[in-house]
Amino acid sequence: MQGDGEVCVTAIETGLIGTFELHIRDDFALEWPMVETPNELITMGFDPDLDDAAVIALRNMIKLICSRTGLSREDAYTLCSLAADLRVTQVVNGSKGIHAVLNKTLLAR
What we know:
The chain is an alpha+beta fold. It contains two helices and four strands; from the N terminus they run ββααββ. Helices cover 28% and strands 23% of the residues.
């Protein structure tokens, strides 16, 4: 088993069995990976410096909140400060990773 972030080169990889539905979207472009689950929005940042990776993930979340809600950058930043979780994605190689997680119920209008 593995914790909440990869910490060595022996990360656990697993095969999946199931039915997957993939959608190709050409109506927007991504600079960084992001994830949307039924309950959460997740943005990511990667950099050799873990602090800089956190800044990237947080800025990506702020942009996403603004585009989804019309909130100002300042209000989106405040929301992240109160409710977003920053988690370590990886520290295993030269590119450290952070992902920011926000519950989608906080964006309901």
